[in-house]
Amino acid sequence: MLLFNTILLIHFLCFAVYLCVLLAQWKDYDTRVRNASGMILGIILLITGIVMVALKYPHVNYYKVVPKTGLFALVTVINARFGGKVYTKQAYYALIVITLLAACIAVVRV
Question: Where are the transmembrane segments (predicted)?
């Protein structure tokens, strides 16, 4: 259980840092070119998410895992589309909404 909680803490911290990186671009999202921090955080989120699912198997909450995986894929598509370029207003706000939606899915008890 300690291993799972440690991985969950790493997952949460990476998620929080990613949200902070997005919010730090609030004033200049249309002029700032992104660095590799988002990609590194995304890889860590993906790995920790997979490890958490592997540790909980077969008692996995698929009603949470599947939507969050879909949202993660959508964030990946948006980031790949704007790789090396600045975000458009719609893409930037979509990333924030998707990130907050994933956070809501994570904390809701069903």
Answer: 6-24, 36-55, 91-108
User: Would you say 57 and 27 are in contact if contact means Cβ atoms under 8 Å apart?
Assistant: no
| 64 neighbors 103 (Cβ within 8 angstroms) | no
Q: What is the pLDDT along the chain (110 residues), one digit of tens a residue?
A: 899 999 999 999 999 999 998 888 888 877 877 777 888 888 899 899 999 999 988 888 888 889 999 999 999 898 888 877 888 889 999 999 999 999 999 888 87
Q: What is the pTM of this model?
A: 0.84
The CA distances from residue 53 to 42, 64, 66, in Å, are 16, 11, 11
Q: Assess contact for 29 and 5: CB atoms under 8 A.
A: no
Q: Are 37 and 21 in contact (CB under 8 A)?
A: yes
DSSP state of 36: T
End-to-end CA separation in angstroms for the chain: 21
CB-side exposure of 37: number of CA atoms within 13 Å?
Answer: 14
